[in-house]
Write a structure and sequence with these properties.
Elements: H1 3-19, H2 21-42, E1 52-58, H3 63-75, E2 78-83, H4 87-92, E3 98-102, H5 106-111, E4 116-122, H6 127-155, H7 163-171, E5 174-180, H8 188-214, H9 216-223, H10 225-230, H11 236-264, H12 274-298, H13 305-322, H14 337-342, H15 344-358, H16 362-396
Helix pairs in contact: 1-2, 2-13, 8-11, 8-12, 8-13, 8-15, 11-12, 12-15, 12-16, 15-16
Length: about 400
């Protein structure tokens, strides 16, 4: 076989790669996006970027307790919120990954070489809370070691009165005690499975919502249905609403399937009261509508189905990770968590998980989701305007 024929086959492949946008996405763009995300989230061995939200109650209110809290703040690992009381409830409701209570006598004990304890409140079995507890344990030990090093200078050359107590103090001046808190409607064993079941529903909504809307005009034009619809007396807004209802039906069927499988695999979703499910379903529907709004904004600019699929993938894949939808938010570097705070579906999925895992009341979850709901409705409105103009343009230039 002549060499030119080998080269011709290569030429045909490269040509098809360019023409088939979906193939181009999976062959070239997907691995580049994947690598960028992995490096951004997990790639820096010196600074993982992992941070934890910690509730702190300082009962001692001494110079040393304030130094302890200031050191936590400067570490870059902890986001501190000070409480006067009720740290347990703040952790149980999911507002923080863990909490600590600095007891009265903290400074007095340390300055008289007595052991003292810092109470760590966490949720056993929840990955973010377990990780926060382990991190706090290391931090408390390290702070104690640093205090020892500075204390040695003050006692050098002297003999301690109680050598046993002094040795004990030198070994570990600050200890941690642990307190588990219960989570809303769920038992600990099924909580993590519930969390990831709802996360799966979240990124399924992301993908399905985008695929349903972003390729809507392209697919209708390709199949010839668009011209048939436009030549009929059907109003454009009815077409738009029909597309939304079709997308919501598809999402509902898939979501129900995921939830049933999650329950079979051990998730505690069945323990959630029916009236709570109503608020959960409403939030997920509003989240899906917001995602479809993004797709309808992009739909008029798509020329081929391959391009539509590629664009949908390049939006959905990074967002499911960077938005804290598919993975716990504490694994995301703090600089990227800003995106998770502003992306509408991320906030809504957080609300749904907080209802199920932490026992949030529906009104509390809806209030937390209000910014996401407003942005989602605004996005859908813009999508409707662009979609209507695209239909009018298609009618003028079939």
């Amino acid at each position: 076989m002549p060499a030119s024929q080998y080269l011709y086959e290569t030429y045909i492949y490269v040509k098809s790669l360019y023409r088939e946008r979906q193939t181009l996405f999976w062959a070239l763009i997907f691995p580049l996006v994947y690598l960028s995300i992995v490096i951004a989230v997990f790639g820096d061995s010196r600074d993982t970027g992992v941070s934890f939200s910690i509730a702190v109650q300082d009962l001692d209110r001494s110079a040393l307790s304030r130094a302890f809290i200031d050191t936590m703040n400067r570490s870059g690992i902890y986001r501190i919120t000070l409480y006067d009381s009720d740290v347990n409830n703040a952790v149980a409701q999911g507002r923080h990954d863990a909490g600590i209570v600095i007891p009265r006598g903290f400074m007095s004990n340390l300055t008289t070489w007595n052991q003292t304890f810092i109470n760590v409140i966490y949720i056993k079995g929840l990955s973010s809370s377990d990780a926060a507890r382990a991190s706090l344990d290391q931090f408390i030990n390290r702070f104690g070691s640093i205090y020892i090093e500075s204390s040695i200078e003050t006692i050098r050359g002297s003999v301690p009165e109680d050598s046993f107590r002094y040795i004990l103090f030198m070994l570990r001046p600050i200890n941690s005690s642990y307190e588990e808190v219960e989570r809303g409607y769920l038992s600990t064993s099924g909580g993590l499975k519930t969390y990831y079941t709802l996360s799966t529903v979240g990124f399924m909504i992301l993908y399905s919502g985008l695929f349903t809307s972003i390729g809507s005009i392209v697919e209708a034009r390709r199949s010839g249905v668009l011209q048939l619809i436009l030549s009929s007396p059907i109003r454009s807004h009815r077409i738009f609403v029909a597309k939304i209802l079709a997308g919501l039906t598809s999402i509902s069927i898939t979501s129900l399937t995921i939830i049933i499988l999650g329950i079979v695999l051990g998730a505690d979703l069945y323990k959630i009261p029916l009236n709570i499910w109503g608020a959960t379903a409403l939030l997920l529907i509003l989240g899906a509508i917001g995602v479809m709004g993004i797709g309808f904004i992009l739909a008029p600019f798509m020329r081929t189905s391959g391009a539509a699929v590629a664009v949908a993938n390049i939006i959905a894949f990074p967002t499911m990770f960077l938005g804290g939808i598919a993975i716990p938010r504490f694994l995301i570097p703090s600089s990227i968590q800003i995106f998770a705070d502003i992306f509408p579906l991320s906030r809504i999925v957080d609300s749904v998980r907080n209802i199920a895992v932490y026992g949030w009341e529906p009104i509390q979850a809806i209030q937390y989701s209000i910014p996401a709901i407003v942005v989602g409705i605004a996005t859908l409105t813009v999508g409707w305007i662009l979609y209507r103009r695209a239909l009018e343009k298609a009618l003028e230039s079939p």
